[in-house]
Amino acid sequence: xxxxxxxxxxxxxxxxxVALHAxxxxxxxxxxxxxxxxxxxxxxxxxxxxxxxxxxxxxLMGFDVDLGEALAAKLGVKLEWQETSFDQMMxxxxxxxxxxxxxxxxxxxxxxGAVNFLDYITTGxxxxxxxxxxxxxATMDALCxxxxxxxxxxxxxxxxxxxxxEHCVKAGKPPVKVVGTDGSSDARMQLxxxxxxxxxxxxxxxxxxxxxxxxxxxxxxxxxxxxxxALGMSKDNAALNTALTNAFNQLIADGTYxxxxxxxxxQQHAVPKALVNAGT
Length: 280
Prior knowledge:
The chain is α/β, with parallel strands linked by helices. It has two domains: 38-123 and 229-276, D-Maltodextrin-Binding Protein, domain 2, CATH 3.40.190.10; 125-219, 3-Layer(aba) Sandwich (D-Maltodextrin-Binding Protein, domain 2), CATH 3.40.190.10. It has helices at 3-30, 63-75, 86-94, 156-167, 184-192, 206-212, 238-253, 256-263; strands at 38-43, 52-53, 60-61, 78-83, 100-106, 115-123, 125-130, 147-151, 177-181, 198-202, 217-219, 227-234, 275-276. Helix 2 crosses helix 7 and helix 2 runs antiparallel to helix 8. It is found in: Cell envelope.
């Protein structure tokens, strides 16, 4: 066999080997291995526009649902939603019954004992009241001495109480009476029934509620804290933490994140990049 023929055979073999390995290399770049083909996500579908069920079809909908599906697609895995209660989400993650929490959870330092948070949207507790009563609350200090409801399952109960201590009690005014409710929808019902004077929920969710309830609610001032809504990840799964962080940055880079934000009217609450445990 002459040298020229031998070289051509060697070159053909080399090209074949490169072609065989190229798809695998590409897959590893775009979808880091997380050691499983299905990702299980905990969700409590009662917080629109983040997660809720379509009344007509009972199908899960919302920003978190779309974001979760997009992340799973980047990772090359199937996403399985596991409905649970807010009280059970953390234990479901730490006992490995689910892989992630994707359900409008706020990144708070006291929740980071066994959980890492991938912060994906800005948020902040917002006081609001019925539009018909907006004139009673021209300034936020008009809340002093009033009854305010908010979901007992969130940090908003303590947040509102701390705001009252700082802005009412220290000023010699009567404190806000903070009432824990059975979720945000219960707070809105009590507000409509005049059982409470005002309520608190994430400021980014109020425009959606107004869009489906004929602008029934009026914000009181601005959100009184700056926080992040986040995806919860187990601290003992570094590979999944890294994979999800990279996948989220890819969604930002290719414009998917921005499209999902726009779909749910949340463009003003975008983060510029993946943030981990950035909440204060």
